[in-house]
Automatic annotation (TrEMBL), chains A, B:
UniProt domain HTH lacI-type: residue ranges: 4-61
Keywords: DNA-binding, Transcription, Transcription regulation
GO terms assigned for molecular function: DNA-binding transcription factor activity; transcription cis-regulatory region binding
Protein name, UniProt field: LacI family transcriptional regulator
Gene3D superfamilies: 3.40.50.2300, lambda repressor-like DNA-binding domains
CDD domains linked to this entry: HTH_LacI
Domain of life, per lineage: Bacteria
Length: 333, 333
DNA sequence: TTGAATTAGTAAAACGTTTTACTTTAAAAT
DNA sequence: ATTTTAAAGTAAAACGTTTTACTAATTCAA
């Protein structure tokens, strides 16, 4: 069964393609198509189950009602939750989301942007990595709405939604210090993205402000994408060799690996060993003892992102760029 | 800056559009375009950064190199992990994935199928729900490759990849029985999908085969999409009111809620109260005590799905439908 | 009663590709 | 010296829409 085209409908209704198109797009009134014709055509459309070919439509109009979402890794719960929220909200406004993971590869990120571009997505929501500034700039000069989230790119002047990573990190370390911790470690990753750097800066600054010397060897940078077992080994050696009494994990998956490491060396979390994870995760609430975590307000972030992009999409004139910083919450458990 | 079209390239190179098209599509040799022209055109393409408009391409060719993936909920780690694996593998073969969540709504699922259809995706990977049989059948009569996974639809004759839910459930219950458990509960959901039904059947059959009477009130069906707190309350009343010594959770998110419930009523898992979760999750490994789980072989499932769909896509003739059942593993912790 | 305005609708161009069927020139075969 | 074949390339149709500019018929105004 050949799929129906607008032409088939036109023929069946005995009117022109133009007329059908006007009716489909709600412009019938405007273009003075009679009520009778409208009814007749609509009936035929309903009965036949005709659905306009969006590809043809996009080719003609230049837009797609699709928003591209580029994230680091959909299997990371932070991103998958954000993605779900964004998808939900976009869907309600008639937009679809295509998403794809960069896995922190600059090449893949560039490729994704190109793919989205050649598929004529209407806007971009990107959790960016360094090295794609140029590509994003091209989108901007092309007048495409771009919203960065989670991480900012300082060289790029566009919209950004994120939380205050510096502050959250700073406060986490301060909470350790208030509890009398002295040897506070930071386990982070080696990827060079603003949000990770800020977490490191917050760590450093909190130490300095509290007259605790900063020791390079208390900061472990785990190679992104490395095998988890290796990560666990690295952490075990950190936890064993140093007199650490507290550790901040800069991402939730690092914290999870960290918990595994601690379990393996039978080190218990408690009075003399405190832990905070960045980005909450179900594991932390259920862990015994439960684990404190920096909780980013996912719902708010998603809401802001989608609201920003939709207002860009609907406004004909270029809106002013906005930087929205939403506070994180330290959930002490 | 207007975006470049194939025509711009043709003009710049002083050749016809046809020639450029042949070169782009690697048909230059075939169509006897001289080496010199090929080189020249390729150089211009490289320098100008021209990327073919995929929309126009799709309109003309009728395919998109996009595979649609329809799942229940991307924020569920089972699905997000599968999605990531599928995306990865598809990507390597030059296919992109568009995914979207149904949230177990028949209407949304139908809408998604329609959206994918009107966007001319080349194939469909669907974790289906009851009520969309007709829509899937339409895809099939339309000769589109469809792979169902995780759950099968018995009315539909197409490809399916999944694990043996009946068996895994059966074995889980048997393992309880071997440990001397007598009052074994099942916490499941009320959604009417084959995979959930099979888990219930496995539970029942294992009891029967071991001469343990089946009690209706040991099976709790949690309403899908209901607020988690309500779920937790329901579970608390189950765990408190009955003399239960073991419980199988039919999904990982139910198990997580269950663990929260247990924590709230201070019931500890151990000698006289055993737990198994269906679908593994990081929580279970790290929980104290760690929680046994039925582990579906995600990698294998993803691999099989993608391999099936790719072979369908590349073969001109209709291939025979395959039902691939991959065994799950009960991880005893 | 004529010209203007309104109503109801349509023909055809355009979006950017791919692909079929064709042309022209040169080389090879007879 | 003619015909055949091969090499190198191109014109134009087609994919399914949207949209602009148009026509024809009717009504209205003066």
């Amino acid at each position: 069964m050949k799929t129906l085209s607008i032409k088939d409908i036109a023929v069946k209704a005995g009117v022109s393609i133009t007329t059908v198109s006007f009716i489909i797009n709600g412009k019938a009134k405007d273009k003075s198509i009679s009520e009778a014709v409208i009814k007749k055509v609509e009936k035929i459309i309903k009965e036949s189950g005709y659905k306009p070919n969006q590809i043809a439509r996009s080719l003609r109009t230049g837009h797609s009602n699709i928003i591209g979402l580029i994230i680091e890794d959909i299997s990371n719960s932070f991103f998958s939750r954000i993605a779900r929220l964004i998808e939900d909200k976009a869907y309600k406004k008639g937009y679809k989301i295509i998403y794809s993971s960069t896995e922190n590869s600059v090449d893949k990120a560039k490729e994704l942007i190109n793919m989205f571009k050649s598929r004529k997505v209407d806007g971009y929501i990107i959790s960016p990595i360094k090295g794609i500034e140029e590509d994003i700039q091209v989108l901007l000069t092309d007048n495409k709405p771009v919203i960065l989230f989670d991480r900012n790119l300082s060289d790029i002047d566009t919209n950004y939604v994120g939380s205050d990573h510096f502050k959250a990190s700073y406060q986490s370390i301060e909470s350790f210090i208030k509890k009398g911790k002295k040897n506070i470690a930071l386990v982070t990753t080696d990827i060079d993205v603003e949000q990770i750097v800020e977490r490191l800066d917050g760590y450093k600054q909190a130490l300095i402000d509290n007259n605790i010397p900063y020791h390079d060897d208390l900061v472990v940078k785990i190679h992104f994408n490395q095998d988890e077992n290796e990560t666990i080994e690295q952490m075990k050696s950190l936890f064993r060799s140093k007199e650490i009494d507290a550790v901040l994990f800069a991402t939730n998956y690092l914290a999870i690996s960290g918990l595994k490491a601690l379990k393996q060396i039978n080190k218990t979390i408690g009075e003399d060993f405190a832990v905070i994870a960045y980005d909450d995760h179900e594991v932390f609430e259920l862990h015994t003892p439960s684990i404190s975590a920096v909780q980013q307000p996912l719902e708010e972030i998603a809401e802001t992102v989608i609201q920003l992009i939709l207002s860009q999409l609907s406004s004909k004139s270029k809106l002013e760029n906005q930087q929205v910083i939403i506070s994180s919450k330290l959930i002490e458990r």
